[in-house]
Amino acid sequence: GAVRLRSLVLAMVAVTLATAVPAFAWGPQAHKLADDWAIGTLPPNLRNFFQANRSFILKHANDPEEWTKKDRYERMRHYIYLDKYGMFPYRGLPHSYKAAVRKYGLRHITHNGVLPWQIGEYSLKLTNAFRAKEWKQVQLDSAAVAFYVADAHGPMHTTENYDGQMTGQNGLGRRFGFELVERYSHFFMFRPDSASKLSDPTEHAFQMILESNTWVDQIVLADIVALDGQRGYTDQYFDNFYSRVGSTAMKEISEAAHDIGSYWYSAWLNAGSPELPRQ
Hints:
Elements: H1 2-19, H2 28-39, H3 44-52, H4 54-59, H5 63-67, H6 97-104, H7 106-111, H8 115-132, H9 135-152, H10 172-184, H11 201-213, H12 216-227, H13 235-270
Helix pairs in contact: 2-9, 2-13, 8-9, 8-11, 8-13, 9-13, 10-13, 12-13
């Protein structure tokens, strides 16, 4: 009886995890744009290495999305429901993973997403790959870090209302992060700043997430206003939506590019700036 009950509870937890989680913050197009522009933020020697491996990195730009199909715990690494921690700027949430788990319990933390800590973890993984001069691993880890960093710049991945499902706006996450970008990215202008050294990768991840979280209300409102007078999500709806939050999408992808470059650069510096292979 007890064993059966436990397996039933575990099955229910698995189902909850599978159903109550956001799909991608950005579509494949946004991730590739961010990675591509990130390469240009790097100092010359590092830029040459990434430029030489550009097609490989872009090909693997959406790897963590694929991992969700095999690893049921992967999805929770792509988001954090900040609204589960009180009011902005969520001062009650410790930025140390151990302290957060101590305060809220492992179940609460994992169920509500671990994105900023995942960025810290992967940043260390990339540093170790650079240090070991495992260049293929460096490329794979660079692509994965980039994915998580871009997700941190997806405003709808910082809220429990990730798809507008709590405000009767189902599909909002996809409309903003996927369809808007697919339709209008050829109008986007990017000017990411040069990559800079990050003193604390996890702390920086929290700053990125807080910054993108400030756009959630605007996106929710823009969707309501854009739909007004439309019969569903027409071309006119998207034009309206774009005129209100297109600049937000552009800004966040551009800042993602700068931050991706900064994580790559910092990992290389923290590894002792190893000499890069000539390719």
